[in-house]
Amino acid sequence: MKQLKIFFSLVRDALDSATKGNTAYHIWMGLLTVLMLTGAYCYSKQLNEGLSVTGMNDRVSWGLYISNFTFLVGVAAAAVMLVLPTYVLKDIDFSKAVLIGEGLAVSALVMCLAFVTVDLGGPARAWHLIPGIGLFNWPDSMLAWDVIVLNGYLFINITIPLYILMKKYQGKLPHKRVYFPGVMISVFWAIGIHMVTAFLYAGLPAKPFWNNALLGPRFLASAFSAGPALIILALEIIKKYSDYTIEIKTIRKISLVVTVAAQINLIMLASELFKEFYAPTHHSSSAIYLFFGLDGKNALMPWIYTSIAMNVTATVILTIHALRKDLRWLNVACVLLFVGIWIEKGMGLIIPGFIPGPWGDIVEYMPTWIEVGVTLGVWAMGFFLFTILVKAAIPIETGRLKYEKLGSQ
């Protein structure tokens, strides 16, 4: 009963902290609210008229929603790159960033589930994904595995930080025997969520563009590039607009992780290109369409070459030590890498898997304004949640917000 009282006190104080800020903070939250309302309006149109209002069709049945879902699974998995050195390797330089990374993981997972929901056409259909109630088809279905690992990882990333914050809120040290087993599970689970998502695609032999043994490792490499890149940008914003102290060596250590992962990602990309184009077969049609176009259809070419240019430029910047140590260049590289991998996971991976169709017909896909509106709304919801989590965690982490102080007043 006492712990429940402390929990409600923490929630109340966290919400109170989240509603306070300077003018820039309120403008930011207001902008996110406008985007969420716009997304809600677009989603209402989709609920009313069906998925026909999107650019998806019988040939290309996964579009912008599943593209963002795939990308965000990687962003969520990237939290392990902070959890592992902090809790397992005892690297104190990462300790200031780990709760931020876990907050980002929670926000990314919520967005993942939201994108799956909007892609179903309506939330009422989500009951099919509930074990024991819906047509779950576990363990045969890789989609069922994906549902399990995503929800399990979300549970882990909520409960462990919540326990640590509740202890610090009370002015106590968290007990390692309580949270460490969950930390160890989360390290392997983080890798599992992205590998299972990769297996979801690679396990479809009718889609040769995805039926690739390298897909899982490349998913991890791109995840450990884009996720920590976003964490670096978030840490720099938090450092600039709050009193939360983040050492420059913390950012530099994370940037080294991003650099190695980005280099590995490019090596794997080169391997895939060699496999597709050195001795092309009819199974290379999707890759040919993506990179060179087919039958005069080449809608995805600008996307993939933009993605590659961004990834290569970012990796070059990160590889040159003098540029990586300059925060201005580091920020440029992180933005390029994040956007480049976002394009790569969507327009460069999901969409071309459906083109050409089983009979060789080419039906191109381009998202409609409804899809774009819903997507922006879901992203705004994720950033809104992340902002609230950060605003709640920082005062507790720094010791400015404690239960004892409030209880004595």
TrEMBL record:
Keywords attached to this entry: Cell membrane, Membrane, Transmembrane, Transmembrane helix
Organism: Agaribacillus aureus
Keyword Hydrolase: no
Topology of the protein relative to the lipid bilayer: Multi-pass membrane protein
Domain of life from the UniProt record: Bacteria
Protein's cellular compartments: Cell membrane
Keyword Protein biosynthesis: no
Family: Belongs to the NrfD family.
Residue ranges the record marks as coiled coil: none
Transmembrane segments: 25-44, 64-85, 97-122, 142-166, 178-204, 219-238, 250-270, 303-323, 330-355, 375-394
InterPro entries: DsrP-like, NrfD-like
The name this protein goes by in its record: Polysulfide reductase NrfD
